[in-house]
Amino acid sequence: MSTKLRVVLNGTEVFEYEKNTRHPGKQREFLDNMDLDMDEGIEIDGELISAPDKMQRAQYVAMSLLYGIKMQSEGLISASCGYLVTRLPDLKQIRAVESGEEVTMDLIFDEEN
User: Fold this and answer.
1) CA distance 102 to 69
2) Distance between CA atoms of 91 and 112, rounded to whole angstroms?
3) Where are the domains of the chain?
4) 14 vs 9: CA distance, rounded Å
5) φ, ψ dihedrals at 97, nearest 5°
6) Which tens digits make up the pLDDT trace of 77-100?
7) What's the CA gap between 13 and 93, in Å, rounded?
8) Of 55, 59, 70, 89, most Cβ neighbours within 10 A?
């Protein structure tokens, strides 16, 4: 079983994160605050979701991760990955396809490749 979360964009692996990375107290507190912020509502595909469920939150954070990778923002990448691996420990891969300004994304739980 892989201990890595992989990010695949347009068929190419662009990032991997070690799922066993330790998250000290301050980081765990920050992740909890992310949840509190999302309790206020999130926007996905132009739609405001006032009470997002676990998967909607994960989709929102995964989109933030993709943005962080594109912008080379280590803080955003670290926070997004930390959130995803602690909230969805069985997540194996984020698979995204860009087409112009649109991005479609799948959260993969059952495949390694």
Assistant:
1) 16
2) 10
3) 4-108
4) 6
5) -130, 125
6) 999 999 999 999 999 999 999 998
7) 10
8) 59
Flag whether the pTM goes above 0.85: yes
Cα separation, 68 vs 63, whole angstroms: 9
* CB 81, CB 19: distance < 8 Å: no
Angle (nearest 5°) at CA 25 between 23 and 27: 55
CB contact at 8 A, 99 and 11: no
Structure confidence by residue, pLDDT tens digits, 22-32: 878 888 899 99
The letter for the amino acid at 21 is: T
| Contact (Cβ atoms closer than 8 angstroms) between residue 68 and residue 76 | yes
Q: Which two tokens stand for residue 37?
A: 């912020």
Transcribe 54-99 into DSSP letters.
HHHHHHHHHHHHHHHHHHT-HHHHHHHHHHHHHH-TT--EEEEEEE
In the beta sheet, which residues pair with residue 4?
Answer: 18
Place of tokens 């920050």: 30
